[in-house]
Amino acid sequence: MSNRPLPILPGATLGILGGGQLGRMFTLAARGMGYKVMVLDPDAASPAGQMADIHLQAGYTDPGALQRLGAACAAVTTEFENVPAASLIELANYCRVSPGAAAVAIVQDRSHEKAWLADNGFATAPFALVDSEAGLDAALAATGTPALLKVSRFGYDGKGQARVGTLEAARAAFREFGGQPCVLEGFVRLEREVSVVLARDDAGECTLFPVAENRHDNGILDVSIVPARVPDSLAQEARETARAVAGKLGYVGVMAVEFFVADGQLMINEIAPRPHNSGHYTLDACVTDQFEQQVRVLCGLPLGDTRLLSPVVMVNILGDRWRDGGPHWDALLAHPAIKLHLYGKETARAGRKMGHFNVLDADPDRALQLAERMRGVL
Q: pLDDT tens digits for 64-100?
């Protein structure tokens, strides 16, 4: 007997908690497939709210807003991992919710996530959990120095983390973070960073997108190269490890697993219970993109084909580009194989993700060269 729910078909209303760029791209995918979309986000100018049929401007724990969302929607999903698990539990009283609260609760907290990975036999960089300043001495002994001190909750894109080389520096960073629980991560001999985006349905069927090779700048994803320039055996290991993580979590939805490649070995860095920045290449380079896949798994539909149609390089566009008369869209749009995606954010700030572009070419080296050139021109 199949575990798949009855499919939710076009014409139904889908809900999403979170109104940022991931919610915007989900909304565009859902509306293109014939669904209505209701977004819950407190920001009046949220990128997803601009595209939705209904934007509920309220907090994620607002009882009235949750009741309205749950009553109006056939199913609800999320665009970021810091949605309170209690809100997901409340919504499940009204409608289908994917991903579920239990899986999100594990991966939205770095301490829980690292402990869960270790308990389930997944390789990670050396780490230690820190819940008090007094525990820093033993933590540093376990990880060695230098190390990264990261807050357990609400850190992303390089925020909420500090490189520390001494006990004094670790203490200062811990105090700067308000003494909240942290994870201390040891450094490894990093060769590359790669990621796998996947979708897993109620019956346990899993489809995986091609492996992306990622470069970061100041903790923010800068460029993704697909296919990743790693041996086939390592790419396959990354895909199978990501599949195993999703299976162990009992995850239903779209998720990403980020890896370090160190000394030729894979180590899991983080799990993201949602579509992922490193999967934005799928919008133009795959038969099914990660946001259509999110709609499909949420609605109990068969998962889409994830074949790569062309090598591709994705480049993030940050708010820093809105200086000196930029961005220079004319230079970018002069190239027919470049696909631009802007997120509709009203204010550009340094480090803020404003959009991205994908460069497609049958020759992956040529795609990377053009992407690097446009990155400089923009």
A: 999 999 999 999 999 988 888 899 999 999 999 999 9
Burial (CB count within 10 angstroms: exposed 0-12, middle 13-18, buried 19+), residue 167? middle
Predicted local confidence at residue 1, as pLDDT: 41
Tell me: cis bond preceding 7? Omega within 30 of 0 counts: no
Residue 195 near residue 212, CB atoms below 8 Å: yes
User: Among all chains, which residue has been given the structure tokens 């190390």?
Assistant: 147
Q: Which domains does the chain have, with CATH numbers?
A: 13-97 (3.40.50.20), 126-186 (3.30.1490.20), 190-377 (3.30.470.20)
Q: In percent, how much of the chain has pLDDT > 70? A: 98
Q: Are 181 and 195 in contact (CB under 8 A)?
A: no
SS3 state at 11: coil
Q: Which two tokens stand for residue 45?
A: 């100018």
3-state secondary structure at position 121: coil
Q: Where are the alpha helices (DSSP H) in the chain?
A: 21-32, 47-51, 63-72, 85-91, 101-107, 110-119, 136-143, 167-176, 232-249, 282-285, 290-298, 329-333, 364-377
Identify whether the C-beta of residue 40 lies closer than 8 Å to the C-beta of residue 309: no
- Assess whether the previous peptide bond of 42 is cis (omega < 30° from 0): no
Only one residue has tokens 């070995």, namely 265
In angstroms, rounded to a whole number, what is the distance separating the alpha carbons of residues 232 and 141? 36
Give backbone dihedrals phi and psi of 29, rounded to 5 degrees, phi first: -65, -45
The conformation of residue 93, written as its DSSP 8-state character, comes to T
Position 156 pLDDT exceeds 80? no
> What torsion, rounded to 10 degrees, do the Cα atoms 277, 208, 236, 370 define?
-40
**For the CA atoms of the chain, what is the radius of gyration?**
20
